[in-house]
Amino acid sequence: MRNYDPFMAPTHFKITDMFKKMDKTFNATGKDYGKVSGDRTMEDIKKRREDRWNFLFIAGMWFQDLFNYDFRRTEQCIIPYATQEGEISFCAYNTGIGWRNIIEKMHMTATLTKWYEEHGRHEIFAGGKKVGMPHVGHDMTLQMDHVNSEANHTLDELGIAKNAREEKIRARDLKSNTEKVMDAAENARMAKLYREHVLGEKPVEGIVPITSIAPAKPVKQEVSEPVSGD
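Below the sequence we write its predicted structure tokens.
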């Protein structure tokens, strides 16, 4: 209740309405707001719907992937799911190996495309109003020469990114390569300082370090052809 702010609350939403919502949920006062059990009647439903305010409850779940699956957390899950294969916990059904996909495909009656062909699409609403679509077909004609043509590799040959994802990948790789070069230079500098100040090694004049000698270029040998006489 300490978080209730009348200046930020919706119009006509008083703190007494807040108490009523809490009491309606936990039934602390024993007031009859209408039953929610399986034997409820239409009168119970109408009585509960007389309240003009509804709450939307949002909860965060412990998401798990295959690489960080926690069996102990799955054992502690208290949300049961009723499926065609029996009861299963929320965490096991929606994470890990993917029981939801397995069970849905086991009992799938039709694909989405097949369902649309037999039953049509659902109604479409925009701005709270139904969008009339008496004709659901289309008149699109495919040009087969374009469909069967080879993909355009011009941008790949020029080294130009085709989309934002490729731009991000190239920027990341460029940054990574730059950091590697800088790290190598920094490591060489620190190694030099270590040898000089810790090991006490001093550079000797007139001696060329082996690391500064570049490998010799290969010499191309010319093969003389024998000259045949008359």
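Residues 1-58 form one domain.
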